[in-house]
Structure formats: structure tokens, C-alpha cells
UniProtKB/TrEMBL annotation:
Peptidase M1 membrane alanine aminopeptidase domain ranges (all copies): 294-499
Protein name: Aminopeptidase N
Alphabetical UniProt keywords: Aminopeptidase, Hydrolase, Metal-binding, Metalloprotease, Protease, Zinc
Domain Aminopeptidase N-like N-terminal span(s) in chain numbering: 69-256
Coiled-coil boundaries: none
Family: Belongs to the peptidase M1 family.
GO MF annotations, alphabetized: aminopeptidase activity
EC number: 3.4.11.2
Necessary cofactors: Zn(2+)
Catalytic reaction list: Release of an N-terminal amino acid, Xaa-|-Yaa- from a peptide, amide or arylamide. Xaa is preferably Ala, but may be most amino acids including Pro (slow action). When a terminal hydrophobic residue is followed by a prolyl residue, the two may be released as an intact Xaa-Pro dipeptide
Top class in the EC scheme: hydrolase
Species of provenance: Adhaeribacter terreus
Length: 864
């Protein structure tokens, strides 16, 4: 599962609004500056906000029955949005004799239950969630039996549920079922994780079950189908119908079972005589290989790196509408949300390799070997996240991979301000609470540390052993530890205990002193040891002396660790953890000269990036400016982008030294003319489109008419990101209103970035004549794009006459009250707040808040 790209709004809101708490006795919110987080004081004891709250214990599911095989025959009632199903389940007792079979079956109409071999009806009880079947006799663990169930699944009649990671749990989804929306395809697709497969077929919906399966899908002949395993045959039926028979011959978990149905274009490739297919909407047929085309190379790379070939019959990837998360690693058939579906022009700005690599790596970690319980979810998600790093390291190089690693650390630390829990955790309120930045980003970083500690060869040999020993089975964290211990010959309990089983992370303070030919480095662990462990940290310290670098391996332990190194002269630079592999916060004060030296000499991206960010506020000083001028020519695009940002006048004005005594922005001074020329050149010709867009934004911040031609030219750039940046830049031009005819052609562009920029332009300089275009955008845009566009629309409404303004408010109200996606409702709610000067809108907002049923939004609205 990948929900990162899908959860931006909910995480941003949660991080921004849910950090505060109140003192138990006084009701006052307090702050502990040394911790950097809100805290609660209870009877003179300060408890950080992130300390885990009491939650129920969740054991792995007890296995009474072994679900051996599932055979499904399914057809559909589009009008009622029902699935008509026949399920034949092959089962046997797991160990102890059994005379009942208990199945998960949510919201079904049960037509009949019988023993298949004899067609004998079986007695059963059904409470709408659990189907308990009385078997014809008591079976022992060597005896298989088959139960035949005829049923109708009614997913839309289930009580609504979901989480921030997976916004709905009804399992089966009909998209535009009656074809009433001419701009949206008709589709059917499923989402099984975590326990929603049982909303469309009866099963034992637990991750520690493994089964083989067959699915016969009967559907209108104009639709393509996709499921797990191989397509055995397609047979025509009367009345324009067809039955496709899909067979999954290798065992996998029930939550990984999937179907997808739609009028897809199917683009085919192959890898080692296995089909590799991409299912997209027909208009994207020509860009399908641009989106997914690295998949065969990924299959080869991961198979070689892990020493275990891709295990399934085929690999398909399908993009669907209105998906409830980011993507899902269904066995041999990953499913993606529509944000992955891009035109060739959009692919100039966005690669989907991160999410594609994530789901593909799951085919080993999650599908071949499955975590035995949701408590062990990091065995799936941490590995998939680290698969992204491995792919970028291979394909693009270490800098790109390290950029992702740095982003993962920051994302985890953001969540850690309000939540610190063990990676492997048995206490939680809902199993979907496990889908967080701990299971993904923190876990990926922990695996990177493990790789750094044991070495590359041992790391991948141990992963091969883990996969081989546990293939087609389930595993818990001890299985991974034992694989590493057997390969390395080391007792690694200390590593797994502190990183997987304990909450928190090291908060390190590093200082140094040089005297009498000796360098002393002291490291202090500052995390609250009441709630987080004191860490054992094998690490290196790099010392540059007279231009030569030496590295010293050390081990941090206890509150205070001190190390002495010989040095004939005062070092130019000391870097703690030169590999930038630790999951930790590190405070290590450095002088301006040390930071400049670090930028030029530290080899890892993280250290160069850190130096630039710490020097940002001094960019007006000549020797610091020279560093950023050098960075404008850096090979790695993120360094160039950071340097471009440093000279942005909007940022520059916000710094303490950004102005001279007269208030003039020093960046406009003649001394910076070479910089301005470099940035203009970057804006016009940098090979990375995002850097070109950043450079345009920096030029726009100068409010200098000499760059107007750069902005106007950008409107016709092949990159949508550059065109959007050019449009944003033109908003602030003195003659912007005169440019309305020049930007009108962009109304036909089907790209969310350009639409957002054009909407902002119209909000500043348009009139009521653009209202139909905004209405069209509200129909066309989806997902996060729509949520982010709604406040732009509200800003535009501020300048309209009452008739159009009120019509627009009604549209926003409908989104806020009725849209099926809770993030879109949140976006509309925020948009209405922009218009809250109107008392009627204020009352509308209060009413929406009072009547909202979704607990996720009720919590957010309560903090707004």
C-alpha cells in the first residue's frame, strides 16, 4: 500500500492542528522548549504529547481453520451496485478438530450455504458481519471440505468507514455505474487491505491466512477485466456478455485478492517470458510506457538484488478512478489512483517511479512473505519504502536516493512531534492506525541503518534468506532478526529491540574541542529516557585536517560519550555520521567557515544541503554568496534549486540582513548581476523542469519588468510546471490585466498545475466571464487536485457580483456537505472560510460543522 501521495492534506492539517494538549489540573497548554513539542503536566510530571496513549492489545488472529482455496463466480448489477456471487471455499482445520466454520462476510444477503460434495444444505447463523456455518461433522486437520455459498454483496449499504490512509472500507466500488457522467468511465474495482475483501466475498479476512484462488468474472463484452494470476480463458456468453477465468495458483493472503473492470487500453510488454501489462484509460494509451516503462528493468534489478526472482505468473498495473488511497500491491496486479495517469507532456515534470517501485517491491515483501498481523506491518511497508531508495540508487544515483532518504527522515520527524510509537506495536485502536510515517518512513530509515551496520553483502544475503525461508508464508519481526543473525553470526537483539520494539529516536548534541594536538568530540543523548531508550549507535566521525579526511568508527552509548583523536592542527571540519545514515536529530553547531568547507568537501547530498540551508540567511555576504553561485552550477538538481531559492527576493526580505539601511533589497544591487544572469539562464534552459520553474519564481520576486519576456515565453513551454510558474509570475506584473487574452488559450489545458495557476490569475485580474471555466474545472478535477483548487475558486469568488458569487458558494456548500471524499469536503470547508466575511456563509460553516458525520473531519473542524 502507498498512501503518501494521497494523504498530503490530512497530514498537513493533523500536524498543524493536533499538537496541543491541556494540563490535566489547570487546563493550560505548556511548552517545553528543550523537547520542541507540546507537553502535558500531570501532578508535576511533564509528559510529552507524543507519548503513546493506552490502547487495546491486538494479537495475531488465532487460526482455527486453514483457508486452502477460494473459487468465485461473480457478476454485477450496475443499477443496484450489487455483486452476485457464488463462493466455493476449500478449508480444513488448522490443528484442532472443528465442526464449525466462521467466515467474515460483511453486509451480504446469504442465499444458500451447502456442502459442495453432497449439495447438503448446512445450517448457519449470520449477523451481517460473521457467517457461522455448522458443518456436517467434526473434521480433523488432515480432512479438507468444501463449502458452497450463494450470496449478494451490497457494499454501498455498509456503514461508512475508513481512515486517513484508506479513506473507505467498503471493499467493492462501482464508478459511474449508470454512465450518467459522460466525462468519467464506468469501472468496478476492489480494495482489500486491510480487512475489506470480506465486503465482496466470504473469507477469513486475516493477514495470516494464505490461499490459492480462481475467479470467474462475467461482464459485458466491452469491458476488460484484471485479477490475480493468469487469464486462463475468455468465453463469450449470450446477450453480449463474456466470462473471464483468472487463476492464482500460488498462495497469497485474502486481502491481496483483486478485480478491476473497465474499458481500459492494455499495453503489453514482457519480462522473462512473463506478461507485463499496463491498464490505462484509452486516451493515455500512448503515455502508458512513459508511466510504467521502467517496470521490466525494476523486475530485473529487484530480482538480482534480492537473489529471488519475481515469483508470480505475470505483473499487471492498472489505474482506476476515485481510488481510496495511493496504490495497492495486489498480488501480480497492482492498482493505482488516477494521479498516476499522466500524459507524455505531464511526464516531463513528474516521474511515477517512486510509487511504481514501492508497489513492485511489495510483491516480495508483503505478497510473497506477508506480515502475520497488522502489528508487524513494517515488514511490508518499511521494505516497500526502502525499495524506492534502492531503485533510485540504482537508476539515478546516490544523490537522488539520498534526497528521498532525507525527505523520509523529515516526514517521520514531523509526525514524531505528536506521535512516537514502536515500529512493531501490538497496542493500537484501529489496525489502520498502523499506516503511518512510522511504518513507512521511519521503518525505511531503520532498514538503511541495518544495511549500513552489517554491510551490503550481508544485508542482501540475509534478505534472500528471509524471503526463501518464509516464501508463501507469514512472518513476524523475529523471523527477520533470525535471518540476519544466522547470516552475520551476530546477536542483533539490541538493534531490533531499540529500533523496532521501542518508540522514539535519538536526539543528539555534538560538540568538539581542539587543544594540544588533540581533538575531543563529545556526544550527548538528549531524548527523554523515561519514554525512549538510550541508544547504542555504531557510527563514524569524519575529520578534515589540512585538507585530508580521516574517518574514525565509534559507538555511542549512555547519556554522554567522549572520543579523542590526534590532530596536528585544528581541523577545518568535523562531521558526525558522514554517511548520513542515522535516524536521529543531531545538533552540532558550526561556524560559517566550517559550513562553507562542508559544502565544498562533504561527499553526501545531505551535508551539502544542510550547509546551504544553514547559510541561507547570510547569502548577502560575499563569501557565502560565492557558495550559492557555485551551487547554481551544481550537477545535482536539488542543489541548484536550493541555490535559486536562496536568491528569491521574497525570502531574502524576510531575513534579518535582507535589507540595507534604506530598505533596498540588496539582491537588486549591481554586485548580484552575474547571479541574476545565471538564474535567468536557468529559467530558460535548465534540464530539470522544476528548477526552471523555481528560477522563474525567483525572477518574479524581483518585480523587474526586464524579465517579462521570460515569463511570457514560459507560457508556451513544453513543461506544464514551467508554464504554471510563468503564469504565476505574470500575476504580479503591472500590466497583468492586459495579458488576459494571452493566457486564455491555457483554459483548454487539462493539467491541474496550470489550472491552479490560471485560477489564481483570474482571481487577481479576471471577472465573471471566467465563471464557466471554473465550473468546468470543478467537474474535471479529482482527488487532491480538486481539494487544492477549491480555495482558489473561493478567492476568485471574492471579486464577483452577488449572482455569480452566491452560485459559487452553493457549489462549495454542496462539495462540503455531500462529496464522497472527505478530503474534498475538507477543501470545500476551508474554501468557505475564505468567504466567511459574509454572515450567511458563517452560519453555513457552523451548520456544516455541526452536521458532519465523519469522525476524521469532526476532529479537524474542532481544531479549526
Amino acid at each position: 500500500m502507498n498512501f503518501k501521495a494521497f494523504a498530503v492534506i490530512s497530514f498537513a492539517v493533523a500536524n498543524g492542528m493536533l499538537l496541543g494538549c491541556k494540563t490535566a489540573e489547570t487546563g493550560k497548554t505548556t511548552s517545553n522548549a528543550s523537547l520542541g513539542v507540546e507537553t502535558t503536566s500531570v501532578k508535576n510530571k511533564t509528559i510529552p504529547e507524543w507519548v503513546p496513549k493506552p490502547a487495546p492489545y491486538h494479537a495475531a488472529e488465532t487460526i482455527l481453520t486453514d483457508l486452502v482455496h477460494t473459487k468465485l463466480r461473480v457478476s454485477f448489477d450496475w443499477q443496484k451496485q450489487h455483486l452476485i456471487g457464488e463462493a466455493t471455499l476449500t478449508c480444513k482445520p488448522y490443528f484442532y478438530p472443528q465442526n464449525t466454520l466462521i467466515l467474515d462476510a460483511k453486509g451480504f444477503e446469504i442465499k444458500s450455504v451447502e456442502l459442495e460434495e453432497t449439495a447438503e444444505p448446512l445450517k448457519y447463523t449470520y449477523d451481517g458481519k460473521k457467517l457461522t456455518i455448522n458443518l456436517d461433522k467434526t473434521y480433523n486437520r488432515t480432512q479438507e471440505y468444501k463449502v458452497l455459498i450463494n450470496y449478494i454483496a451490497k457494499p454501498n449499504e455498509l456503514e461508512a468507514g475508513g481512515s486517513a490512509a484508506i479513506t473507505s472500507d467498503k471493499g467493492l466500488y462501482f464508478i459511474n455505474p449508470l454512465g450518467e457522467d459522460k466525462d468519467k468511465p464506468r469501472q468496478i474495482w476492489t480494495q482489500g487491505e486491510t480487512e475489506a475483501s470480506s465486503a465482496w466475498f466470504p473469507t477469513i479476512d486475516a493477514p495470516n491466512q494464505k490461499m490459492t484462488q480462481e475467479i470467474y468474472i462475467t461482464i459485458e463484452d466491452n469491458f476488460k477485466t484484471l485479477s490475480n494470476g493468469s487469464l486462463i480463458y475468455s468465453r463469450q456468453r449470450p446477450n453480449g456478455m463474456r466470462t473471464d477465468y483468472w487463476k492464482q495458483e500460488l498462495p497469497h493472503a485474502p486481502y491481496l485478492t483483486m478485480i478491476a473492470i473497465g474499458e481500459f487500453a492494455v499495453v503489453k510488454e514482457s519480462w522473462k517470458n512473463k506478461d507485463v501489462t499496463y491498464y490505462v484509460e484509452p486516451k493515455y494509451k500512448n503515455s502508458a510506457k512513459g508511466i510504467f516503462g521502467n517496470t521490466p528493468e525494476m523486475l530485473s534489478f529487484f530480482s538480482q538484488k534480492l537473489g529471488v526472482d519475481y515469483p508470480w505468473d505475470k505483473y499487471a498495473q492498472v489505474i482506476v478512478r476515485d481510488y481510496v488511497s495511493g496504490a495497492m500491491e495486489n498480488t501480480s496486479a497492482s492498482l493505482f489512483g488516477e494521479f498516476v495517469q499522466l500524459s507524455n507532456r505531464e511526464l516531463l515534470d513528474h516521474s511515477m517511479d517512486e510509487i511504481i517501485a514501492h508497489e513492485l517491491f511489495h510483491q516480495w515483501f508483503g505478497d510473497l512473505v506477508t506480515s502475520e498481523s497488522w502489528s508487524n506491518l513494517p515488514l511490508n511497508e518499511s521494505f516497500a519504502t526502502y525499495g524506492e531508495y534502492l531503485w533510485f540508487e540504482h537508476k539515478l544515483g546516490r544523490d537522488d536516493a539520498d534526497l528521498g532518504l532525507n525527505s523520509d527522515l523529515n516526514n517521520y520527524l514531523s509526525e514524531a512531534q505528536r506521535k512516537q510509537v514502536p515500529l512493531i506495536r501490538y497496542h493500537y485502536n484501529n489496525h489502520e492506525d498502523m499506516f503511518d510515517r512510522h511504518s513507512y518512513q521511519k521503518g525505511g530509515r531503520v532498514l538503511h541503518m541495518l544495511r549500513n551496520y552489517v554491510g551490503d553483502e550481508a544485508f542482501f544475503v540475509a534478505l534472500k534468506k528471509y524471503l526463501t525461508d518464509n516464501k508463501f508464508k507469514t512472518a513476524e519481526i523475529a523471523n527477520l532478526r533470525l535471518a540476519f543473525e544466522e547470516v552475520t553470526g551476530q546477536d542483533l537483539m539490541w538493534f531490533f529491540d531499540q529500533w523496532f520494539m521501542k518508540p522514539g529516536h535519538p536526539e543528539l548534541q555534538v560538540d568538539q574541542q581542539y587543544e594540544n594536538g588533540k581533538l575531543t568530540v563529545r556526544v550527548f543523548q538528549r531524548q527523554d529516557s523515561v519514554y525512549a531508550p538510550l541508544y547504542k549507535l555504531p557510527v563514524r566521525i569524519a575529520v578534515w585536517e589540512n585538507g585530508k579526511k580521516n574517518e574514525y568508527p565509534v559507538t555511542i552509548s549512555g547519556f554522554r560519550s567522549e572520543f579523542e583523536f590526534p590532530a596536528a592542527a585544528k581541523p577545518e571540519l568535523v562531521v558526525f555520521d558522514p554517511d548520513a545514515q542515522l535516524l536521529a536529530t543531531i545538533q552540532h553547531e558550526k561556524s560559517e567557515d566550517e559550513l562553507i568547507y562542508q559544502y565544498h568537501n562533504a561527499p553526501r547530498f545531505q551535508h551539502k544541503f544542510q550547509a546551504l540551508n544553514l547559510l541561507l540567511d547570510k547569502v548577502n555576504e560575499p563569501k557565502v554568496a560565492a557558495v550559492f553561485q557555485d551551487a547554481l552550477k551544481a550537477k545535482f538538481w536539488k542543489i541548484r534549486s536550493t541555490a535559486v531559492f536562496a536568491f528569491n527576493a521574497t525570502r531574502f526580505m524576510a531575513t534579518a540582513n535582507g535589507k540595507d539601511a534604506t530598505g533596498k533589497i540588496k539582491f537588486n544591487d549591481p554586485q548580484f548581476e552575474p547571479v541574476r544572469k545565471s538564474i535567468r539562464q536557468i529559467a530558460e534552459s535548465d534540464p530539470k523542469t522544476s528548477v526552471r520553474a523555481d528560477a522563474i519564481a525567483t525572477l518574479a520576486s524581483l518585480h523587474d519588468p526586464q524579465y517579462a519576456d521570460v515569463f511570457t515565453k514560459a507560457l508556451t513551454d513544453s513543461s506544464y510546471a514551467v508554464a504554471a510558474a510563468g503564469l504565476d509570475a505574470l500575476v504580479s506584473q503591472e500590466n497583468a490585466k492586459d495579458l488576459l487574452p494571452k493566457v486564455k488559450h491555457l483554459q483548454e489545458t487539462e493539467n491541474a498545475e496550470v489550472a491552479s495557476a490560471l485560477g489564481s490569475f483570474y482571481a487577481g485580474h479576471g471577472d465573471a466571464t471566467q465563471f464557466p471555466w471554473f465550473e468546468k474545472q470543478l467537474k474535471q478535477q479529482t482527488g487532491n487536485d480538486l481539494s487544492n483548487f477549491l480555495p482558489v475558486f473561493a478567492t476568485y469568488l471574492l471579486k464577483l457580483p452577488a449572482t455569480e458569487k452566491n452560485k459559487g458558494i452553493k457549489l462549495l456548500e454542496d462539495f462540503a456537505r455531500n462529496h464522497e471524499n472527505f478530503r474534498t469536503r475538507l477543501g470545500a470547508y476551508r474554501a468557505l472560510q475564505i468567504l466567511a466575511d459574509d454572515p450567511a456563509v458563517q452560519q453555513m460553516i457552523r451548520n456544516i460543522k455541526e452536521n458532519e458525520k465523519d469522525n476524521r473531519l469532526k476532529l479537524i473542524y474542532g481544531e479549526m
